[in-house]
Amino acid sequence: MKTLVVYASKYGSTREIAEFIAEKLRHQGMEAEAASVGAAPRARDYDAVVVGSGVYMGHWLREATEFVRQNRAVLADRPVWLFSSGPLHLPAGTESLDDPELQPEEIGELREAVRPRDTRVFFGALDPAQLGFGHRMIRKLPAGRDLLPEGDFRDWDDIAAWADGIARALAVPAA
Ligand SMILES: Cc1cc2nc3c(=O)[nH]c(=O)nc-3n(C[C@H](O)[C@H](O)[C@H](O)COP(=O)(O)O)c2cc1C
């Protein structure tokens, strides 16, 4: 069972989550590798695929969405998991990361297209020193800093538990 963990990441925090998931799967005795969508990995060379993206202004990064759209037929034929690395805190009106409000815009379409086993949202990370000009300006808007606080909010236990669930699902042959 060979698993691809493919990601789109602007500043690296989603990449590190993808690498961590691949590492976890390897610890469970599976063959797994993390690759950027930019490296154009071939989904058909893998038995299972995990796709993740950082979230910006409520959307997955375009290249992650395009990866799923372009590989739709291959992915629909394999076990697939989707994750988003997004909120830096729970916005007012939401009680947990399971709140549908926190799912990026395209998740409904992508779920429909590839029927993932699960779709998860993880807390992300923001280092202001890394931000490009446009993103720095957005943080300067009123409320920008409140909505986009500095810090690393990734919950590695939560991510590890999710990866272990993937390993368990892949270890059990489909009926
Ligand atoms: C300008 C900007 C806009 C963002 N917009 C959202 C958003 O709409 N929803 C969300 O959940 N997270 C948002 N985030 C937080 C990022 O998704 C988070 O920092 C994530 O970990 C980034 O992943 P990356 O480092 O892999 O690019 C935003 C971050 C920045 C800098």
Automatic annotation (TrEMBL):
InterPro entries: Flavodoxin/NO_synth, Flavodoxin_CS, Flavodoxin_dom, Flavoprotein-like_sf, Protoporphyrinogen_IX_DH. This is Protoporphyrinogen oxidase. It comes from the Archaea. Pfam families: Flavodoxin_5. Gene3D superfamilies: 3.40.50.360. It comes from Methanoculleus frigidifontis. Residues 3-167 form the Flavodoxin-like domain.
